[in-house]
# Entry
Amino acid sequence: MTDPYFFGYGSLVNTATHDFSDPRPARLAGWRRAWRHTDLRPVAFLTAIPDAQSAIEGMIAHVPNGDWAALDQREWAYDRLPATDAVSHDIARKIEIAVYAVPDSSAAPGLRHPILLSYLDVVVQGYLREFGAEGAARFFATTDGWEAPILNDRAAPRYPRHQKLSAAETAFVDGRLARLGAAVVPTA
# Structure
């Protein structure tokens, strides 16, 4: 790829979780987010799925030295897919953009593969910081799979890049989950 960028729609929106250069807001048309699982991990993944009627906000950032190795390692259970023509952004020069998505063989999460609250917290914190409360609300609205159980691991975060949320950020996440009627379950 020439001048490669990636489109992030989950934890990569939270710039506190990475040091990729030139992060900036962008929009991916023809895709929607969904919670899925595979046998590769014991918890649910946030993925992008094709949906011609949807678009999702996220961030693009430069892949250092055009070397995908570090990002591929971070996103090891995802497939890297070309997305240049589907992403709108404010960069004037020609760039190539990829998006990571779990393979089509993934399934809906369940009790054996819950959503980690520590991961969701990181994602929503990123949306709050980059897109404000309205953008974070759009994150919830453009993501499927909220019927999945959400494991409350805040006291002992299992997500390796977890972040400390402010009281307002925590209240926002908890309020949105309550509005959705999401099942937040305690850790065992």
Observations:
- Residues 4-186 form a domain with the Hypothetical upf0131 protein ytfp fold (CATH 3.10.490.10).
- The chain has a mean pLDDT of 91.
